[in-house]
Specification:
With 84 residues, the protein is mainly alpha-helical. Helices cover 68% and strands 0% of the residues.
């Protein structure tokens, strides 16, 4: 019989899901970039996607470099989200 050690993680599932969606949008943007020259409407969605997802990705990445999450001070975080 083997001993299995389960370590509790301090990760927050909501932020993991947000990061997953943003990474998916990065991949989608790269795939869409191939077809933007041949389709005018796809080019518009491509530009909108890049206006939205790259700043959001930078915001979420920077969010975890701050002490706001460590100190559980979510009021500052949600204020920044409203401004975004």
């Amino acid at each position: 019989m083997s001993n299995i050690v389960i370590k509790k993680s301090n990760r927050i599932a909501v932020w993991d899901n947000v990061k997953f969606i943003l990474i998916f949008l990065v991949v989608l943007g790269h795939v869409m970039g191939i077809f933007t020259e041949s389709n005018m409407y796809l080019g518009k969605y491509y530009l909108y996607l890049y206006v939205f997802h790259m700043p959001a990705f930078i915001f979420v990445s920077g969010l975890f470099s701050k002490r706001s999450i460590d100190n559980k001070n979510y009021k500052k975080v949600f204020g920044c989200i409203v401004l975004y």
